[in-house]
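Database export, one record per block. Field names are fixed; values are copied verbatim from the stored entry.
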Amino acid sequence: LPLVIQLLGKYMAYHWCLAYLTPGGQSPQLWHKRTNTFWKPVLWYTKGDYTGDYIGDVLKSPPNDNDKQYHEWGQSLGGMKDIVERFTNPGDTILDPFVGGGTTGVAAITMGRKFIGTDIEKDNIEITKKRVKETYARSQARKNGVAG
């Protein structure tokens, strides 16, 4: 983590490290550290100084909300929605450079944000495209008063 902070600091301004709580039975085991983890660090970087509102530094996913259906490292949709809501506004664009199964994209579209995603695995891109398109279609149907 210190090396990541140092490397990213060359391009962005480090602001804070947040704790992303992952309660329930979804605790990964870090065998080499002999540790069960119930939180993940989220590094907060900015372009220049942060001038926004105060934000609590604890994020949270609902208990047992990991979703491995689309990717082996799938993340909690509820947790991603919490992050999206706290750090972005409707209409903002969210970039996920490691889309995996597309959870960040689904959270972004569901919450009225734009989304850009990349990944080195072509299958991940295809899964994400499908999920984002389906989510967008459902959100448009709801907006237009059509069940979907």
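Remark 1: Helices lie at 2-8, 77-87, 103-110, 122-143.
Remark 2: The chain has a mean pLDDT of 86.
End of record.
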